[in-house]
Design goal:
The chain is α+β, with helices and mostly antiparallel strands. The protein has helices spanning 14-20, 46-52, 74-88, 102-110, 124-127, 131-156, 175-188, 250-268, 276-289; strands at 4-9, 27-33, 36-40, 57-59, 93-96, 114-117, 159-160, 166-168, 171-172, 191-192, 197-200, 221-226, 229-230, 239-244, 310-312, 319-323, 335-338, 341-344, 348-351, 354-357, 364-365. A hairpin with a 2-residue loop joins strand 2 and strand 3. Helix 3 packs across helix 4 (102-110), helix 6 (131-156) crosses helix 7 and helix 8 runs antiparallel to helix 9 (276-289).
């Protein structure tokens, strides 16, 4: 027997949520005894979990009280009950994933059960997406693009005062204000922004993960990166576009051209059986051939390459594997973002990001938005 267990809070643990299919805010567990799958949840959640989870049985901690009784603390009691559940099934060992909480591990070990850590458990099965998951990701990306279109158009159609500051509806257009517009739009569509958003321009955009702050100005490149989560399905969108109000500099035009070429080269490499590292290499080859050096996270004044080319996405915004150095073989129906970028404190930044599915016949792109710098139409 090889029992496999997941535990924690499903609202915060995507691997557990994927098995329970209910975003519980209380501690819970799921265990597979060689094909017999059991969900361990609070008694008031049993019916709901039973309707959504693919399990053979849904039980509550009260049914698996150890000899000394269950602790009044809910999380402790659930951990004790999981240990007792394993023991009553005659198992002496259990395999757990990287998210298994220590409080559960403590009580399982205290019951004399050996714990084996499997680093790929809850990882490999999530990498290959089902048709339903692909539909959820495509829907999330479509919603993300609808808000992106609105934001880029708002920036492009804003008015500029004498010092170059952009105004929209009679007030300065700032990074913070654009993020607020995005948050409100997503809420109306049933999405949230748990990790915020990026609306960054010079000099903040020199740091590729800076959220951006302060007034936006004409002539400067503005990187807008939106990554909302659908509250109904829990799957994420992730899209980046770069917009310039007015006329972009020659430097930004050259950066944008290189980024678009790099994205195309990377996308062409998204084929089942190839490595994630080869995708990253394809993008970097284009960027370096266009004269942009690798800075790898260092914030510089000139435009340079700072980060990997993309990441897996699904129930987490960032999932294994990375499109980066050392990235392993890509799987059929694995979904990645492809997001090459160039960044400098003085010259500005450019990033363009799509979401794609890996197939044996080449990539399938969920994005429909153009890659332009000009969003006036």
């Amino acid at each position: 027997m090889k029992p496999i267990a997941f535990a924690g809070v499903a609202d915060k643990n995507p691997s557990l949520f994927r098995r329970l299919r209910v975003a519980l805010g209380d501690p819970a567990a799921w265990i597979d005894f060689d094909g017999k799958r059991i969900a361990l949840v609070r008694d008031i959640e049993q019916e709901r979990v039973g309707q959504h989870a693919t399990v053979d049985e849904v039980v509550s901690p009260s049914l698996f009280s150890p000899a000394g009784g269950l602790d009044p603390d809910r999380e402790t009691a659930t951990a004790q009950a999981l240990a007792e559940l394993i023991r009553r099934h005659g198992a002496t060992e259990v395999w757990v994933d990287r998210t298994f909480p220590y409080i559960f591990a403590h009580h399982v070990l205290a019951a004399g059960i050996v714990i084996h850590y499997d680093p790929e458990q809850g990882v490999n099965d999530r990498r290959t997406k089902t048709e339903s998951e692909l539909e959820s990701l495509a829907a999330a990306q479509s919603v993300t693009e609808s808000v992106m279109q609105r934001l880029c158009s708002t920036v492009a159609m804003a008015s500029a005062i004498a010092d170059g500051t952009l105004f929209h509806d009679g007030a300065p257009l700032t990074s913070q204000r654009v993020r607020t517009i995005a948050a409100e739009a997503f809420l109306q569509l049933g999405y949230t922004m748990p990790h915020g958003a990026i609306v960054a321009t010079t000099p903040d955009v020199g740091d590729c993960h800076h959220a951006g702050e302060g007034p936006l100005k004409t002539g400067q490149s503005i990187v807008i990166d939106l990554f909302p989560r659908c509250e109904a399905t829990r799957y994420w969108g992730d899209c980046t576009r770069t917009v310039v109000h007015g006329t972009p500099s020659d430097a930004v035009v050259a950066m944008h051209r290189a980024v678009i070429e790099a994205k195309a080269a990377a996308c062409q490499s998204l084929v089942t059986g190839r490595t994630a590292a080869s995708v990253h290499e394809a993008a970097n080859k284009v960027l370096t051939e266009n004269g942009f050096p690798l800075s790898r996270g260092i914030v510089t004044d000139h435009a340079s390459i700072q980060h990997g080319t993309g990441h897996g996405i699904g129930l987490d915004l960032h999932e294994p594997i990375l499109l980066d150095d050392g990235g392993g073989e890509m799987l059929e129906n694995e979904v990645f973002t492809v997001e090459p970028g160039l960044y400098g404190r003085k010259v500005g930044g450019v990033r363009v990001e799509d979401m794609l599915v890996v197939t044996r016949d080449g990539p399938q792109n969920f994005n429909r938005l153009p890659d332009t710098l000009d969003w006036r139409t």
